[in-house]
């Protein structure tokens, strides 16, 4: 615990440390707490002291022996001086001289490395070194203290916790999903007014291109309504990599809840589009084809969400991910155009070759 007393008064800090001491002794656990200038009452609650200065361990051992160590070196804490304040000042070049009590010897400044060297030669330092050099006996350790699994909880709990977190993030970004629903509603109104069946001629084979245009526009709108996943995923990647490397959860526990909770959004947005455009544009009136198109749009929307999440994971930063998204958009426009029959393709190729030859001649 790092500087838990910051912003707290001494009484509150004392109560917190008292509770932690009781918990440590009752539950047989270990706590390491860093404090700056604790009160004498709070200092007395600790069992062991680790004094750090300039990256060196000046003292590490029982609290009751810390003053004895510095007295052996030549420094003594005054009676009305707090031990914690003394320990912070005794290693300082500016404040160290006032605590020198060996009047028969001239004072000289003792640096932190020298303190660390003197501590390593003391009885406490030698005992500590001996404990650290001894082999670790796993047989003498309680079985519950050994790590047997990679993650701290079961796979079901990992999935449940990540589902709860994803649901919380979606509620925080509720405005985004409401705006996307409003956006696709407005676009569906534009679509069925442009391709309104009462004003669009039909009955001939060449009129099918208008319906294909309506389908193409619908698929693009539904697909790229999920482009917001690109930025959302890029923002979450640093946290994901940090928590994954710390073995909080595997990658599947992070990705699966995102996919599951986006399915209802795909269903809602696809239903809005189909309900407002299918019969107004004048597609096949069969109910089975209505639901087939609904299923196709739901799958396309899910594919788009997964595609943009994949591009964000591939790019990892906003600029690269946006470039990949734009390139993918161009590919979709190029290869997702109107379907042309094989025979018509050959005729079009002949016409293009003829035009090129005529222009060259």
TrEMBL record:
Q: Which InterPro entries match?
A: ABC2_TM (IPR013525), ABCG_dom (IPR043926), P-loop_NTPase (IPR027417)
- The residue ranges of the ABC transporter family G domain are 37-88
Gene Ontology MF: a single term: ABC-type transporter activity
Topology relative to the lipid bilayer, per the entry, is: Multi-pass membrane protein
Q: Which domain of life is it from?
A: Eukaryota
Q: Which UniProt keywords apply?
A: Membrane, Transmembrane, Transmembrane helix, Transport
Q: Where is the ABC-2 type transporter transmembrane domain?
A: 159-341
Q: Which GO terms describe its cellular component?
A: plasma membrane
**What subcellular compartments does it reside in?**
Membrane
Q: Where are the transmembrane segments?
A: 174-195, 215-235, 247-265, 294-311, 317-341
Identify this protein by name: ABC-2 type transporter domain-containing protein
Q: What's the source species for this entry? A: Lactuca sativa
């Amino acid at each position: 615990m790092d500087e838990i007393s910051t912003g707290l008064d001494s009484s509150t800090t004392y109560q917190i440390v008292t509770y932690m001491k009781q918990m440590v002794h009752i539950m047989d656990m270990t706590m390491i707490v860093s404090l700056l200038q604790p009160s004498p009452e709070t200092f007395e609650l600790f069992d062991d002291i680790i004094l750090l200065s300039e990256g060196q361990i000046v003292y590490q051992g029982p609290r009751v022996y810390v003053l004895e160590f510095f007295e052996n070196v030549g420094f003594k804490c005054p009676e009305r001086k707090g031990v914690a304040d003394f320990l912070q000042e005794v290693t300082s070049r500016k404040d160290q001289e006032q605590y020198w009590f060996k009047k028969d010897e001239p004072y000289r400044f003792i640096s932190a490395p020298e303190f660390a060297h003197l501590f390593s030669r003391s009885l406490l330092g030698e005992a500590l070194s001996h404990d650290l050099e001894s082999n670790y006996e796993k047989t003498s350790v309680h079985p519950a203290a050994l790590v047997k699994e990679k993650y701290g909880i079961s796979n079901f709990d990992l999935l449940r916790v990540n589902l709860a977190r994803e649901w919380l993030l979606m509620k925080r970004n509720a405005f985004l999903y409401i705006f996307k629903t409003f956006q696709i509603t407005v676009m569906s109104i534009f679509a069925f007014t442009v391709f309104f069946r009462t004003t669009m001629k039909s009955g001939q084979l060449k009129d099918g291109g208008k319906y294909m245009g309506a389908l193409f526009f619908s698929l693009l709108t539904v697909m790229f309504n999920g482009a917001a996943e690109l930025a959302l995923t890029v923002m979450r990647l640093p946290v994901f990599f940090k928590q994954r490397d710390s073995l909080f959860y595997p990658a599947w526990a992070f990705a699966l809840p995102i996919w599951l909770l986006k399915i209802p959004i795909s269903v809602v947005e696809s239903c809005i589009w189909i309900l407002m455009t299918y019969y107004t544009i004048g597609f096949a009136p069969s109910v089975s084809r209505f639901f087939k198109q609904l299923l196709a749009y739901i799958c396309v929307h899910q594919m788009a969400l997964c595609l943009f999440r994949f591009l964000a994971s591939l790019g990892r930063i906003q600029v690269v991910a946006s470039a990949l998204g734009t390139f993918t958009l161009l590919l979709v426009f190029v290869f997702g155009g109107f379907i042309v029959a094989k025979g018509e393709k050959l005729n079009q190729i002949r016409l293009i070759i003829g035009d090129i030859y005529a222009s060259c001649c």
